[in-house]
Amino acid sequence: NAGVTQTPKFRILKIGQSMTLQCAQDMNHNYMYWYRQDPGMGLKLIYYSVGAGITDKGEVPNGYNVSRSTTEDFPLRLELAAPSQTSVYFCASSIGQRNTEAFFGQGTRLTVV
Amino acid sequence: KQEVTQIPAALSVPEGENLVLNCSFTDSAIYNLQWFRQDPGKGLTSLLLIQSSQREQTSGRLNASLDKSSGRSTLYIAASQPGDSATYLCAVHPLFMNSGGYQKVTFGIGTKLQVIP
């Protein structure tokens, strides 16, 4: 029972580089989310998706892009990495949006230098 | 704007002690509240989901209470064990959707719990 799987676990990027954080879930959940967690701050929603082909911005979307071509996968793309994007990124999924538990991946620790 | 505060930021207790973690929120228009556990270098694991109409939820040694009118939730851990050591976060789900169409869940920063053997 894999749940939500994120890769990579760690990554160091140079300023201006790009990368894709991978997220996959095997629970057939419609809703998927990307959060970032910064020290001393609560999790912030970057992007979310309500199903394959449907994505929308969350609270802090600038500098990021997402796609959702399948129910299982929800990659997060960073273009032109900046030091402000140094953070821990979490992918999550849920059956519904409000009344259901959210399941989280183990996170990707990204450092931009 | 909803704000979620968790006090204390850190707590250290001897094994076997009963303890209470606090979560307070500023806007009582909530749909539900969720407690999570986060182990170092790991993601969040859902512990309890308590609806706005409920007063409490229980799972094993954990009991979460909710008082919407005072903007407070507590997580009670009975007979604490070293394996309970982790950071505990609460998250508040709003009653109304954000104007952008998404549910702006507000997370607390968490309480880091250490249970000493």
Describe the structure in your own words.
The complex is a heterodimer of chains A (113) and B (117). Chain A has strands at residues 4-7, 10-13, 19-25, 31-37, 44-51, 54-57, 64-66, 76-78, 87-94, 103-104, 108-112. Chain A is mainly β. By secondary structure, chain B is mostly beta strands. In chain B, the strands form two sheets. In chain B, strands 2, 4, 5, 9, 10 and 11 form a six-stranded mixed beta sheet that branches. In chain B, strands 1-3-8-7-6 form a five-stranded antiparallel beta sheet, with no helix packed on it. The model of chain B has no long low-confidence stretch (mean pLDDT 92). The interface between A and B is medium-sized, with 26 and 26 residues.
Radius of gyration of chain A: 13 Å
- As a whole number of angstroms, the C-alpha radius of gyration of chain B is 14 Å
Give helix % range of chain B. Answer: under 10%
Specify the number of helices of chain B: 0
Shape of chain A: globular
Q: Which percent range describes the beta-strand content of chain A?
A: over 45%
Which oligomeric form is depicted?
A: heterodimer
Per DSSP, the total helix count of chain A is: 0
Largest sheet of chain B: 6 strands, mixed
Runs of chain B in which pLDDT lies below 50 for 5 or more consecutive residues are none
Shape of chain B: globular
Cα end-to-end separation of chain B:
41 Å
Strand content of chain B: over 45%
Mean pLDDT of chain B: 92
Structural class of chain A: mainly beta
Major β-sheet annotation of chain A: 7 strands, mixed
